[in-house]
Amino acid sequence: MKFIPILFLLLVIQSCTGQTESTKSVSQPIPEKSIKPNPVQGLYDHYQANTSPSISSGTVSNGTLKNGRIFPFKGPNFIYFDTTSYLNKHAFTHEKVNRTVLATYKKFETLLPAFEFGLMECSNEHGGKIWPHRTHQNGLSVDFMSPLLKNGVSCTDFNTIGLPHYLMDFDENGIYTEDPTYSIDFNLMARHILILNEEAKKQGLKIEKVILKIALKDNLFATEYGKKLKASGIYFATKLSDLIDSLHDDHYHVDFTLK
Length: 259
Known about the structure:
13 strands
């Protein structure tokens, strides 16, 4: 497993603070007024009144976001990966990126109705630094969970493990090092990126860059949809630091740009 001391410490803290006391049995119904609203849904609902145009300023590594849109925590075929991250307002993007991602998931409701995609961190409400990412600052970056197979069959077993998902470790062939029955579904990953690109164009966007662990690109481009992806000309990062490279095996990072 990737060893990142500070992140590991935070994950331990989150695990401890996120635990709730065991519920006690009660003989009387809980009064309706004492039932607390769902904070995740409440956060999403709070921002739906903002219809002002989104403004992304600066760059993905030094920028801001104004009037961004927050993703729903869950949809018919996708889920945001971590409740704490969501409540910390890390699921914001430029409105055009938001529409692009949701339209892509909408297409997959028909193309692959039984599969649930995992959406990972995006940007802060107002952009700016979002630890531990070096980018994600202006609402034009999205992390997507690598779709997985278990014994060759689509699975979603790790969609809700939260922040530890970033620490999952896959070898150079996309095999999960902790359990080799799990592997990356490179064909679905390629298909997802291709449809993201189609929907981005409809919004006046384009995919500027995809970051994926360098050693995994050959496996990606060797698949049916991977060959189409390679022919599409979508740019994949070709040189990464060892740290950044090692972190982009469990997910792929997509930077969009406004045309």
